[in-house]
């Protein structure tokens, strides 16, 4: 994998931008797809949000100052794009974000791209009940195995706050899974 500093320089230089962007997409598309997919739940929606994320990255690379890792910056863009997408969808349908999320969980069973079993569906239902920030933190820590420092950079939150939110999310999920 190309060094991040080199990739950033190549992304900002007009003569290497196109090739560097192809490298960037190749290196990050799968991780960003799954991050987005865990937020929006639907494959087609995740593809759309991923495309919008890369468009924003391409358009705004000049403004990237290197104060965080490129990966963190792109994750922040992907997270914001996914959350905006959910808000737009729920507004269009005239439902709350929570109601829309519940609909998406219900639709997972019919999604040909969802490969989970009943336990995975129940876990997704439990995650859907979490407040937005806890949901993001849980997904990044549990599924993506990101370190608290990385999540802190992406969400611009203290590590202590993240640990507390993750702990609360786990307790709520455990409680939800014990019901039945």
TrEMBL record:
Belongs to the sigma-70 factor family. ECF subfamily. Gene3D superfamilies: 1.10.1740.10, Winged helix-like DNA-binding domain superfamily/Winged helix DNA-binding domain. NCBIfam families: sigma70-ECF. InterPro entries: RNA_pol_sigma-70-like, RNA_pol_sigma-70_dom, RNA_pol_sigma70_r2, RNA_pol_sigma70_r4_t2, RNA_pol_sigma_r2, RNA_pol_sigma_r3/r4-like, WH-like_DNA-bd_sf. Signal peptide: none annotated. GO terms for biological process: DNA-templated transcription initiation. Pfam families: Sigma70_r2, Sigma70_r4_2. SUPFAM superfamilies: Sigma2 domain of RNA polymerase sigma factors, Sigma3 and sigma4 domains of RNA polymerase sigma factors. This is RNA polymerase subunit sigma-70. GO terms for molecular function: DNA binding; sigma factor activity. Keywords: Sigma factor, Transcription, Transcription regulation.
């Amino acid at each position: 994998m190309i060094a991040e500093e080199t990739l950033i320089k190549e992304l900002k230089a007009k003569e290497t931008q196109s090739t560097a962007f192809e490298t960037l997409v190749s290196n990050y598309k799968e991780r960003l797809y799954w991050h987005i997919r865990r937020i929006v739940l639907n494959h087609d929606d995740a593809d759309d949000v991923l495309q919008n994320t890369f468009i924003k990255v391409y358009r705004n690379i000049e403004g990237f100052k290197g104060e965080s890792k490129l990966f963190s910056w792109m994750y922040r863009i992907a997270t914001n794009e996914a959350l905006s997408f959910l808000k737009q969808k729920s507004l269009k349908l005239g439902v709350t974000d929570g109601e829309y999320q519940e609909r998406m969980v219900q639709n997972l069973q019919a999604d040909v791209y969802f490969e989970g079993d009943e336990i995975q569906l129940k876990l997704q239902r439990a995650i859907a009940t979490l407040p937005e920030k806890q949901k993001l933190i849980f997904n990044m820590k549990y599924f993506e195995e990101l370190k608290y420092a990385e999540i802190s950079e992406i969400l611009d939150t203290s590590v202590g706050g993240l640990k507390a939110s993750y702990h609360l999310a786990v307790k709520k999920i455990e409680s939800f899974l014990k019901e039945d």
